[in-house]
## 1
Amino acid sequence: MSDVRPASMERITTPQLADAFIAQQIKEVQAQVGDKKVLLALSGGVDSSVVAALLIKAIGKQLVCVHVNHGLMRKGESEEVIEVFRNQLDANLVYVDATDRFLNLLEGVDEPEKKRKIIGGEFIKVFDEEARKLEGISFLAQGTIYPDILESDGVKAHHNVGGLPEEMQFELVEPVKLLYKDEVRVVGKALGLPASMVDRQPFPGPGLGVRCLGAITRDRLHALREADAILREEFDKNGLATKVWQYFIAVPDMKSVGVKDDKRYEGWPAIIRAVNTKDAMTATIEEIPYEILHHITNRITHEVDGINRVLLDLTPKPIGTIEWE
Ligand code: XMP
C-alpha cells in the first residue's frame, strides 16, 4: 500500500463501506503476513484498538498484542483493554503492569519535557523487553492513520513506537494508514468494538503524566484519576460527552487552605478543562451549565481525598494549549 490516499478513495461513512474496507484489508494482511507472527503495542486508544480488532479477524492468534500499563492510564482503561481483547475477542494479549517502573523513574522529576522523555523512553524499553521474550515475530503492526502521515511530526510523533532499537525493526503492518479518524471510528464500530472504545477522546501517550503537573506523586495521581473519572461520568450522564471534544482534569502541584469537618484541610485544586476543536490546533470553550458544574464540584470535593477546590479553565487555544503539562 502506498502512503498516498488516492483521490478516488471514497470516504468511509457507512457500515457497508466499512465492511467492504475490512474485507479488503483482511485479504491484504493475510497476503502480507502469511503464517508469520505480528506484534502490536495496544494502548487502548482508538487507532491501536481498531488495528487489533481488524488483525484478530484477519490472522487470529498470529497477532500478539502487548498492553503496557504505565500507571498513567485513566481509571478503568487497562481493565477495559483486558476485558475487550482478552475476554471478548480471545486475543493473544500480553498485559504488563509496569506502574512501579514508571513512577519510580518519574519520582522528583518536575520538568515537563523530561517527564515526557522518561515516559517515552521507558515505554520503548518495556515493549522491547516483552518483544524479545516472544519468538518468531516478523512484523510490527501500528495504528498509523492518515493525519499522522500528513503531519509526520504531529502530535503522535512523540509517543509512537518509532524508536525501537535497530535490531528490533520489523516490517510494518499499517492497515488504517490511509484513513481519517472519523473513518477509523466507523470501521471500529463495524468490527464490533464498544462505543466507549471507538468514541474515546484523544489521550496523550504520556497519559495522566501531563495532567499531574510538576513532580508526580502517587497520592496526587490517584486524586487526579478519581476526579477525572467523576468528570467523565457526569459528562456522559448529562449528554456533554458528545458535545465536547476533549475534557479532563489537571491537578497542579500546589495546595491551598480549606475547611472540612470543622478542621483546616489543605488540598490540591482540580482544574476542569473542556474544549471543542476540529484539529486541536485551535480550541474554544464549551459552555457547561452551572448546575452541572456545581454538582461536579460537590462530588469531586466530597469523594476525592486530597482535593479541596474545583476550578474551571476558560482559556481558549491560543493562548492556552489544550493540555496544561
Ligand atoms: P496541546 O496541549 O498541544 O494538545 O494543545 C493538542 C492535542 O494533542 C494531544 N496531545 C497528545 N496526543 N500524544 C498524543 O497522541 C501526545 O504525546 C500528546 N500530547 C498532547 C492533546 O491531548 C490535545 O488533544
## 2
Amino acid sequence: MPEIRQLPPHVADLIAAGEVVERPASVVKELVENAVDAGSSAIVVELRRGGMGLIRVTDNGRGIAPDELPTAFLRHATSKLRCPEDLGKIGTLGFRGEALAAISAVSRVEIQTRRRGDGAGASLRLEGGVPGAVEETGAPEGTTILVRDLFYNTPARLKFMKKDSAETAAAAGLMQHLALSHPDISFKFLKDGQEALHTPGDGRLDSAVYAALGRDFARSLLPVKGGGDGVGVSGFITAPLQGRGSRGMQVFFVNGRFIKSQLLTAALEEGYRNQLMKGRFPGCVLAVELPVTEVDVNVHPAKTQVKFAREKAVFDAVYHTVLDALAERGGPVSPAPAAEAERTVNPREDFFRSMDAKTFRERGTEKAPGSAAPLPSWSTERTGPRLSDVAPPPVPGGRKPFPPLRKDAPSSVVRQKQMEAPPAEKRPPVPAIPQAGAELPGQEALEPRKEAPWRIAGEVLRTYIVCESEAGEVFLIDKHAAHERINFDRLKAAREPPMRQTLLTPAAVEPGREEAALLLENLPLLEDFGFSCEDFGGGTVLVREVPADIDAAGVTATLEEIAGELRQGRSPAERREALLHTMACKAAIKGGWKTSPEELRALVEKVQSGEVRYCPHGRPVAVKITKHELEKLFKRA
Ligand code: ADP
Ligand code: MG
C-alpha cells in the first residue's frame, strides 16, 4: 500500500484550480465578473486563439491597491466576504476568493491596475501562481488582466481543449449572458482582433438584447414586467408564434447573475402552456430580483446554479408575469414573417400528431381494417359537432344546447338524446358555388348588429372566415383552430362529464394489441371523457358510448389516437391534458365542412373578443392584415 501523504500546496492548488478554470471561457467569466463587481461601466474582452493564446480583460472599475495586489492572488482571498453571516446575503458575483488564485495557478498572468484617484498604478506578473514583485506603472484607472499560456503546466487539461473555434464560441456565449445581465455596462468582445459583440451600456435591456442576440430575435420579443410576494420579474419573452426549436434562447438572471434553473424554465414554459406549437420552446431574457437573503448562490463552483429559499414564490412570480403578458397582448395576431405565414395557411397535414390528416380521414370514414363489427348504420354519413355550445343565442331551427348532464343522471336522458340527435346531425350536401349576385354563405350586410365593430365578409376554402373590422383591418380566421380552442377551454373548465351518445350497435375497435391493452388499462379515464368501453377479448375493445360532440363514425380513429397519447409515458395530469387536446380537436368543425353563418358568427365573436387566440397546439387562430399591408401588396402605398 502506498503511504498516505498530504499533497504539496501547489498540487492541491492545481486540483482546486481545475474546478474553477475548466476552459478559457471560465477564465473570461471569472475575470469579467470581477470587473462587474469592481463597479465598471465599460469592459473589453479580447481573445486570441480561442483564449489559448491570450485572454485580456480591461475594465474601468475601482482598481486594486498596490499593496493588496499579491493578496488578491492568494487562495480564499476576497474583499467581498468578511464573516460566515455574509454568505447568507451575497450581492456580488464573486465571493469565493478563488478565481485569481486558480487562474494564475494554471497560466502566466500579468495585471496592471490603478485605483480611482491614485496618481500611479501598479503591475504584477505571476507564473504558475508564483508572483514576481509589484512594480509602479503608469496605467489608466481600472484594471487590465492578461492571461497567457493557459494550462501550460497541466498537460492533462490541455489535451481536453476543444478546437479554438469551439472555445471562442463558448466565450462568446458567455459574453452575451454577461452583457444581457448588465445592460448598464458597455461590453466589447474581440476575437482575434475582430469585434464580435458591443453593447451600448445605456441601461436598457432592449438595447443589450438587440446588440447581443440580434435584430430578429429582439423583434420576436414582448416586454414583461411583474412579480409579487417580494419577487420582481422583468425582461422579454418571445411571442407564442416565435417559439424556438430548443431552450437555447432562455436566458435567466437572478439578481444580475446568469444562472441555469429548471425551476425558472418550468415556470416560463407553464406560462405558455397550450400556446406553443408542439416541439417549440419559448425564448426569454428574464431578470428575477429578490432579496439577497433569499437566494443561495453558493451551491456550485462555477456559481451558475442557485437555490431559492421560497421556490413557490419565485415560480409563481415568473409564471404569472408570463401568463399576464401573453394574455394582455389581446386581439388576433398580426401576420407573421414569411415562414410563419406559410405555416399559417398550411393545410392540415401537421395537425394530427399521430397520423397525417389524409390517413386520418381515410381511416375515419372507412371501416378500419380489423374492425370486427360494422359501424352504426346512421353514423356512416359524415356527421359533425355543432356550435351550440359556442353560439350565445340558440339558432332558430338549430339544435338546442343540451343541459349539463351529471354522471348519475338517469340513462334515459342519454337515450333521448341519442334518438333525436343523430338524424338531426346529418350535414347537408355541400352546395355549389353561388351564382354572381347571390349571397355568399355567411355574408351579411355591414353593421348587422350595432354592438359588433366588425362584419363577416365570407368564408374561403371552406376553412377561413374573412372578417373586416370597422378599423379597416381584415382578419382571416381558421374556423377549425378557433373551434378547437373553444372546445379545449370548455372541456378543461367543465366540472361535469361530457354528454354522451349511445351507439345503436356497439362498435368493436381493434386498435392493435398494445393499444387495446392501454385503452383497457385506462377505462376510468376514458369514462371521464365520455367513452364507455369494455374488453371484448383478443385485442378488441367494445365501445358502447362516445362523447356527444364527436363524430361517431370516426370512433376507431379517435380511440387509436387516444391510445397513442396513452402510450407516451407521462404523468396522469399530462395524459389528461393530451386527451383534452384530442377531444377538442375531434369535437371541432373541420376545414372543408360547410358551416352555417350563425356558427361562423359565433366563432368570430370569440376571436374578436380576444378570448380565443391560439389553437391548443399553439397555431394561430387568426391573422390580421391591415389596410396598409393590403395597399402595399397592390403597390398603392
Ligand atoms: P472574488 O471575486 O471571489 O472575491 P477573486 O479571486 O476573483 O475572488 O478576486 C479576489 C479579489 O481581487 C476580489 O475580491 C477583488 O477585491 C479583487 N479584484 C479582482 N479583480 C478585480 C478588478 N477587476 N477590479 C478590482 N478589484 C478586483
Ligand atoms: Mg471573482
